[in-house]
């Protein structure tokens, strides 16, 4: 199955439309029925929700802030240009070798995050990304001159069970839910933001 977060306003953004088209082609190539693909973005309009329904895709009912469990199913997460907290939350929700080994993430390069952030910031604010770096494999999507802004900095990430089992036991001991009290820009729209009528700037698709 597939879960897509942070697609953006594809009714007004050519970049988001190209990402949606890529997602649909990917589902076809992987032989994943559209009904097995669920999406969520708090910025979706009623019209966009209707279009996704006509395409046979499912909508997640609530803003999970990326905290989506893979359960027992192998799951592809399509998260192009999402905020770092969304990836961190997803890892936290599935923080076991068995669960992580059942997921693939297409999204912002974790290795690039490691290179761009000071180690203390990465470990403080995005500790689950920091801890999983040695237990994953990553391959960058090839550059295409027509889609430089659409899939730049995008990689495929997967988590081989053997590599995860080689991580130290201490890596798995700390499972506190991320809260980001010291993070100036969390880059996600939280549930309470929408409830309060706030409209923080979402990361551009």
What would you note in describing this structure?
This protein is α/β, with parallel strands linked by helices and 205 residues long. The protein has a single domain (2-171), classed as Rossmann fold, CATH 3.40.50. It is built from ten helices and seven strands. The chain has helices spanning 14-30, 46-54, 84-93, 97-100, 110-116, 119-125, 127-132, 161-165, 169-173, 191-195, and strands spanning 2-5, 37-40, 58-59, 75-79, 103-108, 137-140, 154-158. The chain has a seven-stranded mixed sheet with strand order 3-2-1-4-5-7-6. α1 (14-30) links the parallel β1 and β2 (37-40). It is globular, with a radius of gyration of 17 Å. The relative contact order is 0.17. The model is unreliable at 195-205 (pLDDT under 50).
Strand count: 7
Helix and strand content put the structural class at alpha/beta
CATH class: Alpha Beta
- How far is the first residue's CA from the last residue's CA? 22 Å
Weakly predicted, low-confidence segments: 195-205
Tell me the overall shape.
globular
Q: Rg from C-alpha positions?
A: 17 Å
Topology as a string of helices (H) and strands (E): EHEHEEHHEHHHEEHHH
Biggest sheet architecture: 7 strands, mixed
Number of helices: 10
Average pLDDT taken over every residue = 90
Level-2 CATH architecture: 3-Layer(aba) Sandwich
């Amino acid at each position: 199955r597939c879960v897509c977060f942070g697609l953006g306003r594809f009714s007004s953004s050519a970049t988001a439309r190209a990402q949606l088209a890529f997602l649909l082609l990917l589902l076809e190539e992987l032989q994943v029925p559209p009904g097995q693909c669920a999406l969520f973005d708090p910025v979706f309009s009623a019209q966009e929700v209707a279009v996704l329904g006509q395409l046979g895709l499912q909508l997640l009912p609530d803003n999970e802030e990326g905290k989506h469990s893979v359960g027992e199913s192998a799951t592809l997460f399509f998260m192009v240009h999402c905020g770092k907290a969304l990836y961190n939350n997803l890892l936290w929700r599935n923080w076991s070798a068995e669960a992580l080994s059942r997921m693939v993430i297409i999204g912002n390069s974790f290795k690039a995050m490691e290179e761009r952030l000071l180690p203390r910031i990465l470990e403080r604010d995005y500790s689950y990304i920091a801890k999983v770096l040695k237990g994953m494999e990553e391959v960058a999507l090839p550059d295409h001159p027509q889609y430089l802004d659409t899939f730049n900095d995008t990689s495929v990430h997967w988590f081989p069970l053997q590599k995860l089992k080689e991580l130290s036991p201490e890596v798995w001991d700390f499972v506190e839910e991320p809260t980001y009290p010291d993070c100036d820009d969390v880059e996600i729209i939280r549930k309470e933001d929408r409830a309060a009528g706030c409209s923080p700037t979402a990361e551009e698709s």
